[in-house]
Amino acid sequence: MKYFVLLMVGVLFFASCDTEDLCDVAGLHGGDCYYNRIQNGNDLRGMLDAFVEDAAQYDIDLSYVYRYPISLTIRNDVMYNGYHYGALAYGRCDDERVEIAFERTTWDYLSNMDKLRVMYHELGHDIFNLDHSDHGPAIMNYSGNISAREFLSLKDKMFRGIATDGREFSGHVKRYDVAQYTACQYGW
């Protein structure tokens, strides 16, 4: 029983420290750390808000996404064209909605840090219409467990690339030089 209690305390401590560790590594403290506003590993809207605030740190204004329908869900099944997915950006190639679904079993298996990585990956598809990257480690191709330091490095690479590329989308500048954009005119 003693070992079970210690194990449970360790699991709860690890799960609750993800965003705190992220704030420490990022050098953001107190009210400045928008990652702390994410209530838990299932706070999908909080993760979207952090993504928008992260983008603002790179002078990328994504505030327009709040003017359109937003649907962020955890479902028992995520399908598209007869295929099952662990997560899917249904709003990809549609700049007037954000719609992302996460398959429950896959989602529940992830650590909070990995949930944040997967959310940023899907938002990369949905908001920036990014395809998967084959340019080394990136939010758009990374898999496996991730540390706070790795997450910050990969999201920095993504946002810096977008901030220097200069693509237009919905009247806003869309940039990313280290991944391929989806050819939306051909569907996805």
Task: Provide structural commentary.
By secondary structure, the protein is of the alpha+beta class. The chain has one domain (42-186): Collagenase (Catalytic Domain) (3-Layer(aba) Sandwich). Helix content is 41%, strand content 13%. It is built from five helices and seven strands, in the order H-H-E-E-E-E-E-H-H-H-E-E. The chain has a three-stranded mixed sheet with strand order 1-5-4. A hairpin with a 2-residue loop joins strand 2 (79-80) and strand 3 (83-84).
Distance between the termini: 52 Å
CATH topology value: Collagenase (Catalytic Domain)
**Total of DSSP H or I helical runs spanning 4+ residues:** 5
Question: What is the radius of gyration?
Answer: 17 Å
Order of helix and strand elements from N to C terminus: HHEEEEEHHHEE
- The CATH class is identified as Alpha Beta
Please give the CATH architecture: 3-Layer(aba) Sandwich
Count the strands?
A: 7
Principal-axis shape: globular
Strand order, sheet with most strands: 1-5-4
What's the mean pLDDT score? 78
Helix content: 40-55%
Point out poorly predicted stretches: 1-17, 168-179
